[in-house]
Amino acid sequence: MKKTSLLFIAGLWSSLGYAQQKTIDQKVDSVLNLMTLEEKAGQLNQYSGRNVTGPVHERNVNMLDEIRKGHVGSMLNVKGAKVTREIQQEAMKTRLKIPLLFGLDVIHGYRVTFPIPLAEAASWDLDAIKLSAQVSAREAAAAGLHWTFAPMVDISRDPRWGRVMEGAGEDPYLGSLIAKARVEGLQGKGFGDLQAILACAKHFAAYGAALAGRDYNSVDISKRALWEIYLPPFKAAVDAGAATFMNSFNDINGIPATGNKYLQRDILKDKWGFNGIIVSDWGSITEMTAHGYAKDLKHATQLAITAGNDMDMESRGYRKHLVELVQEGKISIADVDNAVRRVLRKKFELGLFQDPYRYSNEKREKQELNADKNRQAAKEVAKKSIVLLKNETQILPISKTVKKLALIGPLAKSNKDMKGFWSVEWENDELVSLYDGVKSKLGKNTDILYAQGCNINDTITSGFAEALKVAQQADVVVMAVGETFDMSGEAKSRSDIHIPGVQEKLIQAIQETGKPVVVLIMAGRPLVFNYTANHVKSILYTWWLGSEAGHAMADVLFGDYNPSGKLPMTFPRSVGQIPLFYNYYNTGRPPLKNDTRYKSAYLDIPNTPQFAFGHGLSYTTFKYADLVLNKSEMNLNDTITVSVNITNTGKYDGEEVVQLYLKDEVAQPIRPVQELKDFQKINLKAGESKNLTFKIERSKLSFYDDDLNYITQPGDFKLMIGSASNDIRLEQKFTLR
Ligand code: GLC
User: Is the beta carbon of 282 within 6 A of some atom in ligand 1?
Assistant: First the structure.
C-alpha cells in the first residue's frame, strides 16, 4: 500500500479546496491517483446502518471497523446530525480521509411528512410538488444527509403493485414534469448549497411494469413501450440534472436491470450523457444469482460493474470481489476508476472534502426539523392533493354551523396511518388525524360524535350497532375508510384491491339510514369500492396526506379549500380489468355504446373505469368555450397556437386543471386514443373567465417507430380539451402536412 502521511493528505485536501482554479475533475483525479485498488473498491461499497430497508444478507460486519479501513464509500439508513458526524469522524481516520456519503429514503418528507408522492401527483401542481421536495431536502440536509433515494419515477398502470404510492401514476407526460419538479426541488440551488441534497431517479427501469402487479416480478415489454412509457420520466430527471440513479430489482425481457448494459451504459451514460452515480438497489447485485443470471456473487459483481452499476448497496460483492476480479483481468480497472470518479465527484461537489461535517450541524437540525413553515407547506400540498370523486347532492362542503357531526370508520381517529409508507422521522403526536382536524376546525357549538364501526381488515361487524346509533343522532356523517398505511408501499402487492374487510358493509349500513353521508377513502393506491362508488353521493379520495392530514381534510370538508385534485391513475371497476389505462389503443373491434357482440369487451363489466385518469370535481363548475386554433394545418417546423376560454360558473372560487389531449388519427405504428400533451392548473374566482393558450409543436406529435426512430408522420390529429380524460369538453382537428 502506498504510504502517504496524514499531514500530506491534510495539506493536499486543503490545497485542493482552496485551489479553485483546479476543476473538480482535476481534484478527483488527484485523489484517484493516490488510491489503492482496495480503497477504490471501498468507495463503491455502500452499507446500511441498523435500520434496514431490505433483506439482510449478513450481519457479522463491524461497520465502524470497515469504515476505518477505507472499505466503505457510503452509508444508508444512518440519520441525524450527531450520528452522521460521529460516523464521518471514523472515515477521517482512513489513510486518505475520503468522506462518506450518507443516503436515506426521504421519499415524501423527513420529519414533517408530506402527502405520499401519488397524492402529490394528484395535485397536478408542479410548484407544490417542488415545494414538497425543497422542504424535504432542507430537513434531510439539516439531519446530516447528503443524498435521498428519490424521486421514484416509475410509471405504473397496475394498482395491485404497492409501490404506485411512491410514484406519479400512469402517464409519461405528467410523470416527466413531476420528475423534473422533484429533482429541482431536492437539488435546489446546486450542490454546495446546504439545503441541496443529491437526488436519485429510481428504479431504472420499468420496475412499475412488474407482471401481475407483483413486486420484484419480471418485466416483459417491447422496446417501444420501454421508450414510450417508462423511460421519459428518467430522461426528464437526467435533463433536470439528477445527481444519481438507482437501478431496479426486475429483469427486463430476461436481463436484470442491475446487469443491464443497454440500460446503464448505452442509454443512460452514453446516449443521455449521465455523469452521476448509478447505485444498485438493495442487494440487487447478489440477487442476479436468484434471477439465474449470475452463477455466484463474484460473477454477479463482474456483470454489474461491467454493465455500468457504479455502487453496490448491500450486496457486498464489490467489497469482496472487485479487487480479485481486476487482478484476474475479468473486469477493467478503467471501469472501476470511472465508477470511483463518479463517486468522488459528488463528494467534491457537496463540499465534503473541504468540510466533511458541513451537513452535520445539531443547531441547524434543531431549528429546521418540524418547523412551522415546514408544516404549513405540508398542509398546503395536502389540500391540493385531495380529489373530489363525487358530490351529487352537494352535501359538501359541510356548513361549519352543523350541530351534530358523526365521524365513523376505522381511520377517523388514526394518526399513524396518515404518514403513509416510506415515512422517516415522524412522531405519532405530530401526525394530525381526521378527528383532530375536524375538532380544531369546528367551534364549541358542534357536537362531534365518533364510532370506529369496524376494523380495517377483518370480518368483525359487532361495531356496526354503535356506529348506526351514532349516525342516527347526527345531522351529517363523515366516514373514514381505506387501507392501513403499510398495505401499500414496497413488497405490498395485493391481488384484491377492494377496500379491505367489512368497511363497505359498514358504509352500506350507514348509507341506508338515509343520513347525508360523506366518505373519505384513505389509501396508497387506487382501490375498488363498487358499492360506495354507486351509492354514496359524496366521496373524497384523500390518499395519505402526511403530518397535516387532518387539517387539510377539514379545510376541504368545511369549504375553506375547494378541492382541485385530479386522478393521476385510472381507478378500475374490478381488478379483472387491470391493466387499465387511459392512453390505450383502439383495437380493430372497439366496443360500441350498446353493442359489445364480437367486440373487445367483457361479458360482465364495461371497459370503462370507475373513475378515469384526470378525473376530479370541484365545489364549483367550469365552462369551456371558444376553442380556437390559429391555423388548421402545420408543417414540422410550425407551431399551432390553441386558445380556449374557461369560466367559473359556480358560486365558489376554485382551481381547474385544464387538460389537453391529442390523438394521431392514422399512424404506423398505431397511436393511442388519446395522450396527455399539456395542462394548466388555473385559479378562477366565482364568475371569472380566463383565456388560456397552449402551443402545439413537433415534440407533441412525435413518437417511436418500430426501429426506435423518434418520428412524426403527416396526417390528421384530433385535439381534445377537457376536465378529465373522459370529460372532453371541446375538440378540433388539425393536419400535419
Ligand atoms: C429498497 C427500495 C429502494 C430503496 C432502497 C434503500 O429495497 O427498493 O427504493 O431506496 O431499498 O432503502
Answer: yes
